[in-house]
Amino acid sequence: xxxxDEKTAIVSLEASSAxxxxxxPAQVPTGLARGRSPSQILWLKLRxxxxxxxxxxILAAMYAAAILAGFLAPYSYDNSRHxxxxxxxxMGRIHIFDEQGQLSRPFVYHLVxxxxxxxxxxxxxxxxxxxxxxxxxxxxRILWVVSSNIHLFGVDEPGHVFLFGSDKLGRxxxxxxxxxxxxxxxxxxxxxxxxxxxxxxxxxxAGYFGGATDFVLMRTVEVLLALPSLYFILILRQLFGTAMxxxxxxxxxxxxLAFIGWATEARVIRGMVMSLKEKEYVIAARAMGFSNSRxxxxxxxxxxxxxxxxxATLSVPFFILGEVALSxxxxxxxxxxxxxxxxxxxxxxxxxxxxxxxxxxxxxFIFLAVMAWNFLGDGLRDAADPRTLS
Length: 390
Description:
alpha+beta, two-stranded antiparallel sheet, MetI-like fold, three-stranded antiparallel β-sheet, 5 strands, 14 helices, about 10% strand
């Protein structure tokens, strides 16, 4: 039997099964027109959830900023001004009026250290530097393809503009947050893709075959779930040593977090597959002589996608926080590379935390990213629930 005959038989059996089970027609949600696809209905229901949409737009802005970090950031992540450590945020020091009170182009004054030991500074009002749009500066690449040295804004040397202040090495925190987003946010996406694929495969095999296969795989899952996640992650990370580049560390963190994260999803998918494998269209496909791998991949696992998408969305914060924890503890992304985790290391020093509270700004972005993913995940879970009518 060719592929067209298979699709026709399976679709007809699915339709007849649905007609026999659902004798009472489902109530159409208010405002949802007939004839829309499930994905369109999901989107319409998600749009009504304002909290989920806020989370979606926050994430869209964050990921766009991470992709365009080199263009949006006025400096490179490793551009240091050792004579200007812990300079306070300049958001309120951007002037639009000159000394005579006349409206002028936005500018900043020259920075003059008063006491380097106390990291105190004053503005030299005799020297001012206009903020220029599309200024030239440090070279960068966007998605490893587009090379440029044009930045959204900047000032001429020797002036500096530190929107969120500078760290202990005089590096711009605003620029490092943008570059750090490339690591901290991408680990969540890549890690969840890997763990989702592993979870679907393991859960699908365990649920479909059952017996000894199910027993071995589920006992493995239970062992992973019984281990304290943070300690297990630290142990696995230490096994690889410390003499590695940031790229190698990045890949290892992704692999470790994905290896830890697939167990919960595999267990739930296993239960869904156990119920789906008794459906008429699966029995028909088996009777037609299709291979087990084809039945699992083409007829069973696609029916778990709604759950997979929701679970993956809710699991992304685990990967983000996992990278943050490893980098914060010194076994993750290493200096001078920027990640939100290693930028928070300065907060371990009580003096720096009290005197220079802007070192906590990366934590604000971690909080926003985690909450936005949780809001979006909750909204997708509600939208995917067939029992919700609005």
